[in-house]
User: What shape does this take?
Amino acid sequence: MIEVRPEPFLKNLISSAFRHVVVSAIIFGPLAGIVLGCWYFAHEPVGWRLAVVLSLVFTGRFYAKIFGVSLGYHRYLTHAGFTANPVVEFMMLLAASTAMQGPCMNWAMVHRQHHAHADKPGDPHSPLEGFWHAHCFWLYSWPFIRKIKPPFDRPEYKLARFMNNTFVLWVALDAFSMYAIFGWVGLVWLWLGCNAMVNQLTYAVNSVCHMYGKRNFDTPDQSRNFKWLFFLSGEIWHNNHHRNPTCAAHGLMKGEPDVAYGLIKLMNRWHWISDVQHPTERTYRGMVSGARPAYAVATPDLAALSLEPALAPGGPST
Ligand SMILES: [Zn+2]
Ligand SMILES: [Zn+2]
Assistant: This one.
């Protein structure tokens, strides 16, 4: 008979307190950067030249992190929507790691858990437990995954394992480089403030995109397409994504721009990536057959999708 020993009370208390401090720093630290940045601009005269430079660097960093998370963490590592050469893989995971959303494999494991139990018991961030729980407070209750289990043990994930284990280094280098180049305004605005914007908008996929917007497909969860965040990478076509998670394209209908998929097609043309899980005629037909009659009027953007003429093996996955 296996003897189950209870965890020591003091050890549990320290572990819980440590987790609360770390999670609070992750959620509120970047938000403090926005407040401190606004305070800085209100008290320090910033010439138009510096204002232009800061705006350009902020925007460049914002989209690099957004596309890093979308392409690297989500469509590549979590869902295997394509395979990438080591340089592209490194660049995607580096950009995503600097967004302070956790080590890449940890992120992927949590997100796979979400798809496996979306809006049901076992979902780490279902809005059924409230908007703010789904948005970011779930981080307080989610037990951190310390041991990375298969399939990330496979040799093809060697670089991803390295990026996972050196996560703190990339975050620190990002912060240090902004401070070294721009001083305090670099630290509070370009590092913390930029990460706050990226993370709040990423959190919104878990909260807003499971509560507000249209459903093209009758998926067994509450996922929705929330068009008002169209200026991001395309992750907001979340109901389409839940209908077929491995599909590299998320925007499928007319009026559903998906810049990340555009980049995937471009990188594939340049042979930087391969094995792209394009939406094929067969998978698309499978997805449409699951559409609710009320939403079946939506028109697929067939031209933009460049549908594969051949029928790919395997139907749509859910
Ligand atoms: Zn979801
Ligand atoms: Zn996903």
